[in-house]
Predict the structure.
Amino acid sequence: MLKATIEADIFRETIDAVSALVNECRLHVDEKGIRTITVDTSNVAMVSLELSASAFLTFAAEPCEIGLDIEKIRSMMSMIGKTDIVSLELDDSGKKLKISFGGYEYSITLLDTKTIRKDPNAPNLNLPATFEVPGAMFYDAIKASGMVSDKISLAVSADTCVFTMNAEGDSDRIKRELAGDDVHYITCADARSLFSLDYLKDMGKSIGRAEKVQIRLGTDHPVQFSFVYAGGKGSVGYLLAPRIEAD
Amino acid sequence: MGVALRPLLAEYKESPGWEGLGGIAAIDAFNALYQFLSGIRQADGAPLMDNEGRTTSHLSGLLFRNANLIEKNITPVYVFDGKPPVFKASTLAKRREVRENAADAWEKALKEGDEESARKFAMASSKVDAYIIDSSKELLSALGIAWIQAPEEGEAQSSFMTQSGDVTYAVSQDYDSLLFGAPDLVRNITVSGKKRIRGKVLSVYPERLRLEAVLAGMRVTQEELIQIALLIGTDYNSGVPGVGPKTAVKIVREGKFYDRIGESENAAEPDQLIGYFMDPPVERSYKIESRPPDPDRVIDLLCGEHGFTQERVEAGLERLGAKKGQATLDSWF
């Protein structure tokens, strides 16, 4: 059972954060809120999201699992006005979700949760460098890097405590260094990994809206991003596998 | 081969286009290998061969068809048949006979210089034997492509993996997967884009069948679909003489399946066959692990052992590494 209302903005950010990587997901619903964890079809990136019941204007739920075609919801997002209130209601059979906003009532058929990939276990990673940077600053650097290359290295130097983003294309290069007040270290350690900009651009839109994003980085290891939204009542985590450089 | 459900399924076929097929595909390995063996041939029908006379059509197919799939954002997982169920013996014997006759006919056509017939008979003489299977598994491992050994029917295994959500859809040219309960079946993605039908060359596009839509549209249950198939004939029984797809549906709708199925030659009690389709032996603990290709191993195997030209293999490898160097999270889970 699920019956809830939510501000359009928070609904949009929730859908955007997940649809950046996957077309469908399994949503776990209970009285505390909603959550999902899922890996993209290529097994390269993972997204986890939690939104507390308190982020909703009204929220009544009993524990259940819903198979959501996120892509369908994303494609009707443009219909939702900025200040609309979105109401969500699971029908009694549990097979359809009614999404109402601004005079529209949109009923979507849910996916059979059995046909959605099993929830992945969050891996245990050795990521020595942990720090926070402003989300917008990070996303700007990703967008700029996309102009010269399809990959970017993220690196932390333990000596200087500078966070360096470096994208090298065939002929051009873009480097962005963050230091001083722009980076807040929880642990500063040597780390360097290379990543696909395609994935970072997809994740970057949601990261860019966050006031700050926590980054955990290792060497030739996946990178982990985490940030909050909906006034701290929602949290998003991304995990991205590295590209391994050829010799 | 397989079950002749085609006429009943025509209206449920979707044409997803390649862009709608991104995901993990559980491919019926025997079915795909058979297609490579029968389809990838020289003009006179002889398969591609290395210096020692070993067939290499399947290796060529595995390299280049997989490159195609991976470029289209499809992650293939090959599922190999295990030991056939006992009630498949008669079908297998028949296939062997067809193959042997075709081999004779091929030889005869070659002697007579009839190239078109030679090619046709050569295709029908294709055989997935132990050498083909072992060399395929070896190449897949070197390519970093996952493969899984089924205890019995590969299609049963693919169906189970699709049901459990570990793969996006099952891939086979046969419709048997639907009988094993595959919720999502895709055809024509391991074949080349062209197919010769009665001498004409036609374009072939991916087709998708969703079991839920098929059952709802035909207004039958999974068990009734199996009954319909048994009346028409499957790999495990001959079918009732004179009963085609439409009549079979009628018989099942009228609840007369058990009155008529006795007219078919069945390798086992009908209920036992139904039970096999509903709950076949499958491997439940499997791991789907895709890795980047190991170029040295692939070149060693294809160029070193089987005399492929290095340039061709490198071109294929480059396409396989479309996301070159991109690791997957598997390594850390």
About this structure: The interface with chain A takes residues 22-24, 73, 75, 162-166, 168, 183-184, 212, 290, 292, 323-333 of chain B (CB under 8 Å). The CA atoms of residues 303 and 312 of chain B lie 10 Å apart.
